[in-house]
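FW: tagging you since you asked about this chain on Friday. Here's the raw sequence from the shared folder, copied in full. Didn't touch anything.
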Amino acid sequence: MKNLLFISATTLFFACGNNQQATTNESTNTDTVNAQVTATPTEITTTADGPGITYTVDGTEINNYASVLVQKDKDIKQADAPFLCVLTSNAAKNNNEYIAINFLLNTKTGTYPVVGTSFQRGKSPNDQSFGAILGGTPKLTDYKVTIAECKDLGDNNMGGHKWSISGTCEMVIIKAMEIMLMDKSKGHPAEIKIEKISFKNLQFDDNWDEMMKKAMGK
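HL: got it, structure written out here
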């Protein structure tokens, strides 16, 4: 299998205009995925105050750049969490690892449900994929993200506000994609556990949907 990269026109605008990027759960829905994904820089290293993510997989701790895309949750899966947050990180220098964690969100501290996960690593022909490609269709899970810090960074000069969030997620377990398990000779695991997830200083605009409508109107 080969790692896949999807870039939609709207998310490309978002990446260029707002320096943010992202993704989403374990059932596949290509239309939803293509509408939410952006490319993530692979050569950026984290700094003490920069946006980043730390997680542990198979006993190895990974530190890397991360980004988020935040949209209104049109399905309103949880009344007190009106946004869908798509967090992504592409650690190309760490075994081609790509992780996506999607969760519901409000612009305040608190605990919110994870609604999508995916993880990829390695190079063809021995690469591995867990979860749906870039997350799939959002649905509630038992995993939780705790937002420990939520800062209002002020007017974004585009009709909304810019925010910064930092938080943690104790653990997610992601099932392998069925296509990966078809070749039993490679002994791919049926699932993978990502632990001790923490992220910091991830910025987003709270009116991304409106910004996209204005951009497409032009």
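FW: Residues 13 and 215 are 8 Å apart (CA to CA).
HL: agreed, and The first strand starts at residue 52 and ends at 57.
FW: great, closing this out.
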